[in-house]
Amino acid sequence: MKGTQLTGKYGLFSKYNVQKSDGSPVDPEAEYFVLRLDDGCSDKRHLQASREAVLVYADQIENHLPKLAQDLKEKYHGTVKLKATENFIHNKYGYCYYDVCEDRAFIYNLYVYPEYRLRGHAKRLLKYAILEIRIIGHEGEIEIEAEPRERSIDRECLIRFYQDIGLKVLARRENAGA
Length: 178
Known about the structure:
The protein is an alpha/beta fold. Helices cover 31% and strands 16% of the residues.
């Protein structure tokens, strides 16, 4: 589509000219999508969606471009409406609590609503909690209990899931709930 300027209903493909900050040429065949992320944006719904999109992007590139992913998360994590009130993080998909005291950090009560399970929302909530704990300054292990609330959740799978994220799984409480 070289030399053709596409214009969609809302100016898609024609609203911005993209150039590299170092002055090197841009690929004329490339397609770019620009998101406004600063607080100067007057459309708060657009700003919220843009920041959420950047955090999803950061999750997706975490293994490939870890420094960029970390920078994006540190800059925009606290700006989205993923509510972190005191030690409670929640969104429409679920919630979890965390606590940091002295030299110990603990995540508990992770819950993802059934209709949103197996879509990465538990991992995302945990990563937000971990980021909050790191921002507070805790550098040590972060602990979690692997006690599923529902029989449909396999405890051994839950333990592996938590360990893969880097959490320390606490020993099972005997007589839990007895």
